[in-house]
Amino acid sequence: MRDEVPRTVTAICSSLQEQIGHGLLQPGGQLPSERKLSELFATTRITLREALGQLESLGMIYREDRRGWFVSPPRVLYNPLVRSHFHAMVGDQGRLPATEVLSARLQPATADICSRLELAALSSVIQIRRARRIDGRLVLYVEHYLNPVYFPGILDYDLTRSLTELYASEYGIHYGRVRFDMVPTALHAEAATTLRTAPGSPALRITRLNRDQHERIIDCDMEYWRHDAIHVCVEVPEYGCMS
Fold it and tell me: DSSP class of residue 239?
């Protein structure tokens, strides 16, 4: 019995991969319920979930709480060296972007944010929390932290639009140097709830520390991407090899 479980898991994975690879299960399409899949493969729900979990870790399928399992759409390409913003990046790849503001307020800055933005102790910071979709699917939870000195009145604007464009049009501020930190992580509860998945689900966290054209640190973004939604791709011209 124990020897049959790995074989069954492998068989389920191979079958679903084949169906997805041949386009019989379309990107974004919903899989049958776990009950129906268990009956189809003549196995237990526990064994089925092990197989589905393996496919999820490969980025081939994903789960949404209370909705079920879906085939993952193609990943969006993300090049940190290209000066762009979410809506332009996604739109340029023929996909449909959307942004929802979850909250926007002036609040006390944490010690971590004070350090990142080089603020004095007990400073205030503007926090903007947003959720972003690609083709209707929730893929990104992001927290923006802005130095309020540089953006008076920004909370009165439409914050579903690109902050990059808002900075330029209303404040004459353009991005200069940007520092990127990318690490695989697990979604914390707030991000997971926003993205309709379970806390602890795999994600890619991208932290951006942004300076403006005058070399002032103006804001910090903390992005939490669903791990199957993004493909970081960088081409560096005339890069010197290290040996």
Answer: P
Pairing status of strand 230-232 against strand 76-78? parallel
Find out whether 131 and 102 touch, Cβ atoms under 8 Å. Answer: yes
- Asked if residue 100 lies in contact with residue 141, where contact means CB atoms within 8 angstroms, the answer is no
Q: How far is CA 175 from the centre of its chain?
A: 22
Token code pair at residue 84: 């762009």
The total of other beta-carbon atoms located within 10 Å of residue 128's CB is 20
Q: Which of 50-59, 73-82, 108-117 has the highest mean pLDDT?
A: 108-117
Tokens 């893929």, located at residue: 139
Q: Compute the 3-state secondary structure of the chain and give helix, strand, coil in percent, each to the nearest 5.
A: 30, 35, 40
Distance CA 175, CA 4 (A): 57
At residue 242, the pLDDT reads 52
Helices (H), 152-224: 163-171, 189-194
Residue 1 pLDDT more than 60?
no
Q: CA–CA separation, 49 vs 45, rounded Å? A: 6
**Ordered alpha helix ranges (H), the chain:** 4-21, 34-40, 45-57, 86-92, 111-117, 163-171, 189-194
Give the HSE-up count for residue 129: Cα atoms under 13 Å, Cβ half-sphere.
Answer: 10
Report pTM. 0.88
